[in-house]
Amino acid sequence: MAKDSIIILGIETSCDETAAAVVADGREVKSSVVASQVELHEKYGGVVPEIASRAHIEQIYPVITEAIEQAGVGKDDIDAVAVANQPGLTIALVVGVTAAKTLSFAWQKPLIAINHLHAHLQSAMLAEGELELPAVALIVSGGHTSLYDCESPLDLKLLGSTIDDAAGEAFDKVANILKLGYPGGPAIERAAANGDPNAIEFPRSMLSKDSLDFSFSGVKTAVLYHCRGQDMKGENRVDSMTDREISDIAASFQAAVVDVLVKKTRRAVDRIGAKTILLGGGVAANTVLRSALAKMCQAAKPPKKLLVAPKQYCTDNAVMVASLAYYKYRAGLFAELNLEPKATG
Ligand code: KG4
Ligand code: ZN
Question: Which residues fall within 8 angstroms of residue 81, CB to CB, at 6 or more apart?
Answer without folding.
Answer: 8, 9, 11, 100, 103, 104, 107, 109, 110, 111, 112
